[in-house]
Design a protein that fits this description.
Length: 768
């Protein structure tokens, strides 16, 4: 390292070669984000339907479907994920300026102009602007945002310091070893950028649409083939195919997922939990593993005096009072602040007057003070690491072993010596630690009762981690430092000595074992794991980086919001599950009914316009299920799509029997013409859908719980709209009012009958 630093010319050359000391901007254009909302299974099916309507000249129907498409896309776009906000917060955490030596002179330059090989100065309160190796001087370095260690480290010549660390005390000169994306901080940002997991919600929508498309697609092909066999005109076959396609599209399914999650988020906000990604709400229902950061999450992230061991006949209060004399008042040293706080709570009657204070000296590894005692005699007190105090005062028998025992328990141990300057004695040992939060044990117990396993993840040493784990009620093995999460992440309940990439890898390891993972943290070091987890939770005291990476932010002190998120998530999941089951039932019965009616009448029993009306009244009014009264499950939920599809098919076949019976009565009993039969088919579908809706919403008998007010209101409105259109003949041939009333009564009877089939079937298929 050149004594005068780099030359300005060499710095420019390296800047051109390696780039600025900043992270690249990879913001996605909003237009591209919006267009992506139109590229998915459900939008694709709606877009195909719009094209067919336009080809047929059905512009009104095409416009209505287009509005449904835009509604779905807009709702999703407004709730877009916030990965870019995370990266912006990461950038803002870095230093804005740096003191650098160039051309043998100290200069202040923007931090993004630093290059590898630069010589920089690190001063009190400064943020380290790049990865550096200290060449001279001594500083107290807070790297908790990167390593998770709550206790700052003493850093001298030869020690590596990382970008984003904060200088708590002292001054040092260092050489830059890495800049920009090549720093540890930069690699953390890259992990955040690339962290991605497909939500269970997205997988569920895709699999439901895939199953419906496969099943209904086969039926539609057979139906069109049969129509061709009957020598139906192409002008009738195309509307038949279009009606069938519309009947098979779960048009409001994505929007319902979003709406249900938004309502859950609103309820959580009242409980002190702010969801930043809506998918996190229903993911909380499925979470079965919570990886919790130790420092600042399970602990207070604040050093406190844990115990005091007096020596030479002294008292704890006396040892603390003298140690406080040798501690800075109002500085940024957390050790001194903890000791002064403990001393203030343990006042002693004797009077001591401070006459001089010498702050911590990196050379001697201790701080000192002189004072006068109650008799006015001059005294000296010194505090520091036990090893630094051994040469200053005689060591009492048992003091060394006592200090070692405390260190083995993971505490930071200081020794205090006092007395006349020429005859100082070691008067006591002070142990400091970052204690567990008062509500952490309750969180672990509550989550365990809900079937969620808690795993502690920390950058601290295993001994320290084990103490905190015991304090919060975590029972299980503690990993050795530096162990990688392999294919068996369940083998440990505590992971110690981990870095950001290790937390990220641990979350992925659990996900690879088919777990739905939550991650709770507070620092920038937790950001990649918070982003990768299905549900990232930032505590109220978290950094902006952690909050923007997380899917949920606790806005109130304490951890009870995590339990609230699980409970509310399970309520939301049940509402989404009901709508999904209802959607599968409707889409199966509608396509099957078109096929059966084609065989019975030789014509398409529903027109595209009638199907659009059914979509609007049924699918969108059915979104009121997102407000329904439901029961939360006692264990983590999961999407059992196969069982859900079978249950929906069973209910759909039951409704098909009802609709077919009603159509047969109209054709053969009442001798209705084709257009009147179409109206009757429309009424049968609407009323039958209502009957299955009330069955699908309750896993037990349909009378076991009262539906929500919005469900009752939307159900009544759907029936009223269908009955009014049918009786008045708007958009269809009129139907006698007695026939409409009879169809409604028949639907009520069908609901009771199918209920007795549903209960054992749902139990067998584990629809809970």
């Amino acid at each position: 390292m050149p004594a005068g630093g780099l030359t300005a010319a060499e710095a420019q050359t390296r800047l051109a070669k390696f780039g600025p000391n900043s992270m690249p901007d990879i913001a996605q254009h909003p237009l591209r984000m919006a267009l992506a909302k139109f590229w998915a299974p459900v939008p694709g099916m709606l877009e195909a339907a719009i094209l067919l309507e336009l080809v047929l000249g059905k512009y009104v129907e095409a416009a209505i479907i287009a509005l449904l498409l835009v509604f779905n896309a807009a709702l999703g776009f407004l709730q877009e994920s916030r990965a870019q906000a995370t990266l912006t917060a990461l950038k803002s955490r870095l230093a804005l300026n740096a003191s650098v030596r160039r051309d043998s002179a100290w200069k202040t330059v923007p931090a993004d102009q630093l290059v590898q090989g630069d010589v920089i100065k690190l001063s009190l309160g400064a943020v380290v602007a790049a990865d550096v190796r200290i060449s001279s001087g001594e500083i107290l370095l807070d790297q908790s945002m990167l390593t998770g260690e709550s206790v700052p480290i003493e850093a001298g010549a030869g020690v590596q310091a990382y970008a984003g660390a904060l200088v708590r005390r002292g001054e040092a000169v260092a050489e830059v070893t890495a800049t920009g994306a090549r720093t540890k901080f930069g690699r953390t940002a890259e992990l955040v950028r690339t962290a991605h997991v497909v939500s269970s919600q997205q997988k569920a929508v895709f699999r439901v649409v895939r199953n419906l498309a496969a099943c209904n697609g086969v039926i539609i092909v057979l139906m069109v083939g049969y129509a061709y066999f009957l020598k139906m005109p192409v002008a009738e076959i195309i509307p038949l195919a279009l009606t069938a396609i519309l009947a098979s599209i779960p048009v409001a399914l994505p929007a319902t997922f979003t709406l249900a999650s938004a309502l859950g988020a609103r309820a959580l906000a009242k409980l002190g939990v702010l969801p930043t990604r809506l998918s996190a709400v229903d993911e909380a229902a499925s979470m079965d593993v919570l990886c919790a950061d130790k420092t600042g999450t399970l602990t207070q992230n604040e050093l406190t005096v844990t115990c005091v061991q007096p020596l030479s006949g002294n008292t704890e209060a006396h040892v603390l009072a003298l140690a406080a004399m040798a501690s800075s008042d109002g500085g940024q040293d957390p050790v001194d602040a903890a000791i002064r706080s403990a001393a203030a709570a343990n006042k002693i009657p004797e009077t001591m007057h401070l006459t001089a204070f010498t702050p911590f000296d990196p050379a001697t590894k201790r701080s000192e003070a002189t004072f006068t005692d109650a008799k006015g005699a001059p005294q000296r007190v010194s505090k520091g690491a036990f090893s630094a105090m051994v040469g200053l005062a005689p060591v009492e028998a048992g003091a060394a072993s006592g200090a070692k025992d405390l260190e083995n328990k993971g505490y930071r141990v200081l020794a205090v010596a006092s007395g006349p300057a020429a005859a100082m004695k070691m008067i006591g040992l002070i142990a400091l630690s970052d204690p567990a939060r008062g509500d952490s044990p309750g969180l672990v117990t509550a989550l365990q009762a809900l079937g969620v396993r808690t795993v502690m993840v920390t950058g601290d040493a295993p001994t320290t981690a084990a103490i905190v784990a015991h304090a919060v009620g975590l029972k299980g093995a503690v990993s050795p430092p530096g162990i990688a999460a392999d294919s068996r992440p369940e083998q440990f309940c505590v992971y110690a000595g981990v870095l950001p990439e290790d937390k990220y890898k641990l979350v992925k390891a659990f996900q690879n074992c088919n777990h739905i993972v939550g991650m709770c943290g507070d620092g920038a070091n937790d950001a990649p794991a918070l982003r990768q987890a299905q549900i990232g939770i930032a505590v109220s005291t978290a950094t902006d980086v952690a909050k923007s990476a997380a899917g949920m932010v606790l806005t109130k002190p304490g951890l009870e919001g995590i339990v609230a998120a699980v409970n509310e998530g399970r309520l939301t999941f049940q509402r989404i599950l009901t709508y999904t089951l209802n959607s599968i039932t409707k889409k199966i019965v509608q396509v099957l009914f078109l096929s059966v009616a084609l065989i019975m009448t030789g014509h398409a029993i529903l027109t595209p316009m009638l199907m659009v009306i059914i979509m609007i009244t049924g699918d969108f009014l059915g979104m009121s299920l997102t407000t329904d009264r439901v029961r939360a499950s006692p264990s983590p939920n999961s999407w059992k799509i196969r069982g859900l599809t079978v249950a929906g098919a069973l209910m759909g076949i039951g409704e098909l029997v009802f609709c077919t019976a009603l159509l047969a009565y109209g054709k053969y009993g009442l001798d209705m013409d084709l257009n009147t039969l179409r109206t009757l088919a429309f009424v049968a579908i609407v009323f039958g859908n209502q009957a299955t809706t009330y069955n699908n919403r309750e896993r037990r008998h349909l009378w076991s719980s009262r539906p929500g007010n919005w469900v009752l209101a939307s159900s009544g409105l759907d029936i009223l709209i269908a009955a009014t259109l049918a009786v008045t003949g708007i958009a269809m041939s009129p139907l006698p009012i007695l026939v409409v009333i009879g169809a409604l009564a028949g639907a009520g009877a069908f609901a009771v009958v199918i209920d007795f089939v549903k209960v054992p079937a749902f139990r067998r298929l584990a629809i809970t």
